[in-house]
C-alpha cells in the first residue's frame, strides 16, 4: 500500500491513541482536521506539530517540528524550510535539518527494525509527501534536503 497523505480520521485517532500526546507535547491531534502521512503496513507515520517562529538563517521562513513514528519508536525532528520561487507560479522547498530527539515516553521499547541507513530515506519520503502542512500544494515542483 505505501504512504498516503490524509486527514486523521476519528478511527485512526482512537486506534493510534493520538490524544495521549497532549500529556507531554505542546500540540494535539484534532480528528478530521489534522493531516499526516501514514503507511499502515509498515507502522510509520509523520505529522508536524509546530511551525513558524524566527530562525537565524535569513532565508529560512519556517521552523517545523515533526513527530515521526516508525515501528514503535517515536522521534521529534526539527527542521527549517527555505523557499525559492521558480518562475511565475512554482516553488522549490529546501528542508534543513536542525535536531532529532528520541521520545521514549511515547515509544514501545521495541527496537526498530529499520537500520540507521534506512531511517533517513524513509523520513525524507514521508516529508516529501507531507510537503509543508500536509495539504496538497501543486505549485511546489521540487523538494530537497540538506542532509
Descriptive account of the structure:
This protein is mainly β and 147 residues long. The protein has one domain. The protein contains two helices and seven strands, in the order E-H-E-E-E-E-E-H-E. It has helices at residues 10-15, 116-130, and strands at 4-7, 35-39, 44-50, 60-70, 73-86, 90-102, 140-145. The chain is globular and about 45 Å long.
Please give a quick description of this structure:
Helix content is 14%, strand content 41%. The protein is globular. The model has no long low-confidence stretch (mean pLDDT 81).
Q: Note the total helix count.
A: 2
User: Cα distance, first to last residue?
Assistant: 27 Å
Oligomer: single chain
Q: Please report the total strand number as a whole number.
A: 7
Question: How many discrete domains?
Answer: 1
Shape by Cα distribution: globular
Strand order of the largest sheet: 1-2-3-4-5-6-7
Spatial extent as radius of gyration: 15 Å
Percent helix among the residues? Answer: 10-25%
Task: State the main characteristics.
single chain; 147 residues; mainly beta
Per-chain topology:
Layout: E1 4-7, H1 10-15, E2 35-39, E3 44-50, E4 60-70, E5 73-86, E6 90-102, H2 116-130, E7 140-145
Parallel strand pairs: 6-7
Antiparallel strand pairs: 1-2, 2-3, 3-4, 4-5, 5-6
